[in-house]
Amino acid sequence: MRRGRKKRLAAICIFVVSIYILLVWMFEFPSVAHIPSIRVWWDEEYSACKRHVAHQQSLPENQRAPLYLSVSFSGRLGNWMYAYASLYGLAKRTGRKIYLQPENQVSGYFNIPKNMNVEPICPEVLIEPRPAAYTPEFESLPHGVNVTIKGYMQSWKYFRKEYDADIKKQYKLRDDIMEKGREALKKFKSKISRKFDLLISVHIRRQDKLDWGAYLKGFRAAPVSYAKNAQNYMRQYFKDKAVQFLVMSDDYEWSSKHLKAEDTAVMEPNDKYVDLAVLTMCNHSIITVGTFGWWGAYLAGGHTVFFQDYAAKGSRFDQETEREDFYLPQWIGMS
Ligand SMILES: *[C@@H]1O[C@H](CO)[C@@H](O)[C@H](O)[C@H]1NC(C)=O
Ligand SMILES: *[C@@H]1O[C@H](CO)[C@@H](O)[C@H](O)[C@H]1NC(C)=O
C-alpha cells in the first residue's frame, strides 16, 4: 500500500516536471514556439501582424501601403556606408522604400535623401549568413511583407553594377566637411617641399585589429612590409609620374615610426568624416582592412591595392569574408 502511494507520487512529480520542461522549451526555443500556427495562438502582436499583412495583401495593388527594406546591425561609419549602399541597390531592384535606424551614421553627412525614418511595421527578419559576402537570396525578398535584414550586407554586388553613379552622387560629403578636408590637405601639402603629380593615400587600420579578441577571430593587421610592397608597386606603376604618399592611420605613432620616407608623410588624424573627405581627394589608394578604408578607395575611384592576408586561413573572419564579393574585381591584392 505505502509502496504504491510512493510510486504514484513519483509518477506525478515526473509528469509535472515534464510539463514544465515542455512549456519552457516551447516558449524559450524558437523551434517550437515560433512555428507560425503555434505562435499565432500565443503571441498577440504576432497574430495582429498576420492579420495586418493578410489585409494588405487582400487590397488591390495600388491601394497597398509601400513596402520597406531595412537593415539591423551595430557598426561604425564604414559599415553604415556599406549597409546603406547595399540597401539602396536591393531596394531599387525589389521596388521597396528604405528605412534607416536613427543610429545610422550616414544621413545628415552626405547627399543622401531624407525621409527614410518611417519605421516599417510587422517586418519579416532575414538573417544574413555571412557579413562580408553576397547573399543572392536577398534579390528575391518574401512577397508582400516588410523586410529587415539582420546583417551587414558588405558586398559591392548589391549595388555596384547599376547604381554605382547613384551611390557616388549620394556619397558626396556635406560642403562644410569637404571644406575642412581641403584645409587639412592644404596643411599637409604645406609641410612637403617636393612637387608631385599624384597623391596616393595609404590607409592603415591597426588599433582594433591588435587586441586578443580580434586576433582569435582571425583578424591580421598589415605588417610594415605590406605597406612598403604596395608603395613600391605604385611607384613602379606610375613610374613616369612624381608620386607622393599620404599615410592616414588610427595609429599615428606606428605609422610615423615605420613609414616616413622622402615621398611619404603621415597625416594627423581628424574627425572621421574629414578623414574620409581627404581619402576621396587622393588620386589612388592603398588600404589595409576594414570598410572605412574601402570607402575612401571606392570614392577616390583610382587604382587600389588591398592587403590580401587580412585573415588567418580558416579563421572565423576568413570564413565570413568572400574576397570576390567584398573587394572590387579590379583592385589588386598584395601581401
Ligand atoms: C510596412 O510598413 C509600413 C510602414 O510602417 C506600413 O504602412 C505597411 O502597412 C507595412 N506593410 C506590411 C505588409 O506590413
Ligand atoms: C589628382 O587628384 C587631383 C585632386 O582630385 C586632381 O586635381 C588631379 O587632376 C589628379 N591628377 C591626376 C594625374 O589624375
From TrEMBL:
Acetylation listed as a keyword: no
MF (Gene Ontology): galactoside 2-alpha-L-fucosyltransferase activity
EC number: 2.4.1.-
Keyword terms: Glycoprotein, Glycosyltransferase, Golgi apparatus, Membrane, Signal-anchor, Transferase, Transmembrane, Transmembrane helix
Transmembrane segments: 9-27
Protein's pathway: Protein modification; protein glycosylation
GO cellular component annotations of the record: Golgi cisterna membrane
Predominant localisation class: Golgi
Main EC class the enzyme belongs to: transferase
CDD domains linked: Fut1_Fut2_like
Keyword Membrane: yes
Compartments in which it is found: Golgi apparatus, Golgi stack membrane
GO BP terms: carbohydrate metabolic process
Membrane topology value: Single-pass type II membrane protein
InterPro entries per the UniProt record, alphabetical: Glyco_trans_11 (IPR002516)
Family membership noted in the UniProt record: Belongs to the glycosyltransferase 11 family.
Protein name: L-Fucosyltransferase
Source organism of this protein record: Pinctada imbricata (Atlantic pearl-oyster)
